[in-house]
Each structure stands twice: as structure tokens, then as C-alpha cells.
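Session log. Operator J.P. requested a structure for one protein chain; no other inputs attached. Running the standard single-chain path with C-alpha cell output.
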Amino acid sequence: MLRLLGHTQQELRDIAVSLGMPAFTGSQMAKWIYQKHATSVNQMTDISVSNRKKLLDAGYEVGLMPHANQQRSKDGTVKYLFPVSEGELPLTVETVFIPDHDRATLCVSCQVGCKMNCLFCQTGKQGWQGNLTTSDILNQIYALPEVSQLTNIVFMGQGEPMDNIDAVLKATEILQASYALAWSPKRITVSTVGIKDKLKRFLDESSCHIAVSMHTPIHEQRMQLVPAEKAMPISQVVELLKQYPAFTRHAAKPEDTTTQRRLTFEYTMFKGVNDTITHAKEILRLLRGLECRINIIRYHKIPGIDLLPCDSKTMETFRDYLLSHGITTTIRASRGEDIYAACGLLNTAKHC
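Structure written below.
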């Protein structure tokens, strides 16, 4: 099967022309796939029967793959298990749907496993088994039963987005396109630990929000928690971000605030490791001059790792110190922990 899902409108027009159809047939396909949520070529009723047959004879289908399993948390969070189309092994990825009053966020994956091997993350413990295609990324969205409810998408599931940047950029391009969901980039957030060159490329080519996984501002300590610190220290990540006016305090900001992107630093807090006022002071020093916010994340313990979560009082004291010194800081509500859907718990090794 050749999947139409994951192609841009121009690519669909090129497919149409290659099969002897008018180019506008590709535009019709894009509308059926991305706006009308067609699940089969034969549902595209404004395309002639003969042209639909050409697509099917050439092996093309929409290519939506339904979830293989789902788990529902007591807090309403739903974790879905989606098959992956590429490769010889029957691989899967986990996707998390998080309803919250008038918001509904989808946490999507971009890789099977992860190369970054952060000490506290379950995904890294399964190793890296492959990149998702743009089709596989968008399948998590378009095959989602709650797709019509979505208000936000975060690339914070399995994998490091900058390590699969081509597919991630293409997926976010399609989501923002007028022929698809026509979403503002403000509704999409992409996370990263920081990867040289690829992070700069993302900042240059995308207007989506960015979330940087910091976890500690201290180089030697971050080396132990986030091995990617060796290749691109958090200090270098910050210096790169300071080159972009959207993230710089007192810099002239774009008049069109609909495209103004937000910068967040993710900070998973561990008891007795990175939870002191000394760490908070170092954060202030490191981020001086940046327009950003801090998102404190409760650590969810994983087997075999000698780290412990902080108590709420310690997290609140840390938050309040940063707030009092001018950095917007929040504590992320933990969702889906009972079904292993919370931050750092996604892992599909058991399903492979």
C-alpha cells in the first residue's frame, strides 16, 4: 500500500499528474484527506470513478491505520497504541490524548524509542528502533477518535523531534496548511533536548512553539541526566535562542502576535538532585535576557533508576522563587500516571 496521508498538496498534485490525471485532482485529494477526514479513496466522490481506479490500481490508499489498543486513566487521559507502517518489524508507538475543560491536547510521538537515553525517561530505556514517517506522525492525529476535539498538539511523546526533523517539519507544515487544519503555529509545541544544527534549522524554518528539556542548569549534572548535553550544552542552546528576537527581552516583537512563538524550558524535578535555590539562582543567571517560562514537571519513577520525586512543597518553593525574580513558572499537572501515560513513562518495547 502506498499512503496518500503524509503528502503535501503539491506532492498529491504531482502524484495525480504522474498517473495521467489533472493536477487539481491532487488538490481534491488533499481536501478529502485533511479536511473531510476520508478513510478511503472511494469516499472521494468528486473525483471521477476512473481516476479513483487509477489511484487504487497504482496501489494508493489514504493509509489511515486505527489504534491497536487504548487505555483510559481515571483522570480522563487516554493512551492509544498505534501501529507503525515502515520497517520489517511490527512496531508501535504510544500517543496520549489529554482533555482538560475547554482544551484537548494530543501528545504525539516522532520515533519508536529514542536515542537520547535520558536517565529518567522510560522511552530511552527501550533504545531507538526507527524514525516515524510524516504519515505515521499524522496518523496519530487523523486516526484519533477525538480528532475533532483537538485544540493543541505537542511533540512530547516518544522520541527526540530534532532527531527526525524532516518528518516533524513536514507534519507541522501540513497541520498549518490552508488545505488541512489551517492551525496557527501557536497551537503546536515541539520539544527538544537540543541538537546542533537541527535545532537552528527548526528555529529558522518553523514558527511553532519550542520547549527545551533543561532539567538542570548545571553542565556536569545535566551530562548525567541528559547525555545530549555533551554534544550541545544547555549554555549553547540558550546562546542560540538569544539570537532570535522573539525570545529576547526588550527586543522588537512582531506586530502580528498570532505568529509570536513561545519558549518554555521543561524542568523535571528530582529529590535532592536539582531542587535547591542554588539551582534556581543558576537558572536565573543562565536565562538572563530571554523571554521564556519554566514548566516544572513531577518525576514519575521508573524501574532501576535511583531517582525520587520531590514533594509538592519543595516544588512550590522553587516555583515561587523563580516567579519572584520575573520568570513565569508553573508546575505541570500530572496526567495519566495510572496508565503509564505521564511524562517520561511512554515505552512500547513490551508491544514490539
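Operator note: The first helix runs from residue 9 to 18.
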